[in-house]
Amino acid sequence: MRKGEKARQSKVARKRTERSQQAQRTRAEEQTGALEHIHQARNYPIEGCWTVEKWNEGGLAKVVIARRQPNGRIVFGCYLVDLYCLGLKDTFCNADIPAGLFRRNYLAQIFDDSPPLGVSPALAHEIVYGGIEFAAQFGFRPHRDFRHSRYILDPPEVHPRTGKAQFGKDGKPFYISGPYDNAEAIVRQLARTAGEGNFDYIAMAGTPPREWQEG
Questions:
Q1: Using an 8 Å Cβ cutoff, are 152 and 38 in contact?
Q2: Same domain, 66 and 15
Q3: I want to staple 85 with a disulfide (CB 3.0 to 4.6 A). Which of 68, 134, 173, 176 is the partner?
């Protein structure tokens, strides 16, 4: 290889490395900035709260709470709540989203199966916190990412409970197994914490056909 060509390739490789490092720094800065907005979210005004139209039917309610950052962008949290048994099954949050993009794209993607229904902050908080509190009685903890998305919510005592959100079914936990659940462990835990005969469950297709309540 000629000396000039070797120097040119070395220069190209150096520039490629510099671009890669700059991209990594930019991503890190964006992630750090988003996390700062998430952790400061309680200081921002609520932009809106949404759930699905028939949120109180079928046992699963999806809730989104958005706040407006000082720069006009949106920070939001999404919460999938099992009203019947497990409480907060899934959650995520994001920040620094342009307001128009949030409403056009993010809400549409989150509520891809039905249009979002605007609800009061009181009801939105009641669904999320009520589900967590109900599940806690039986030893179920919120999804691990709640360590971040909890900052989108006001503290539990801020909003009065509306009484519209009901948890459990017929006065007791009702577990419907999901495709990613450790269903056997969940039913055994219910047997320990709720007691035999004090909960119901349905094993969906694909759930291992075992006698879960043994032991």
A1: yes
A2: no
A3: 173
Among 92, 53, 98, smallest CA distance to 73 is for 98
Distance CA(74)–CA(99), nearest Å, equals 6
The model's pTM is 0.80
Q: What is the pLDDT along the chain (215 residues), one digit of tens a residue?
A: 565 666 666 665 566 654 544 444 334 334 457 899 999 999 999 999 999 999 999 899 999 999 999 999 999 999 999 999 999 999 999 999 999 999 999 999 999 888 899 999 999 999 999 999 999 999 999 999 999 999 999 999 999 999 999 999 999 999 999 888 899 999 999 999 999 999 999 987 554 444 333 32
Three-class secondary structure of residue 196 per DSSP? coil
List the structure tokens of 52. Answer: 């699905």
Q: How far apart are CA 150 and CA 44, in angstroms?
A: 14
From the list 89, 112, 114, the residue with the least C-alpha distance to 178 is 89
Residues 186 and 111 in one domain: no
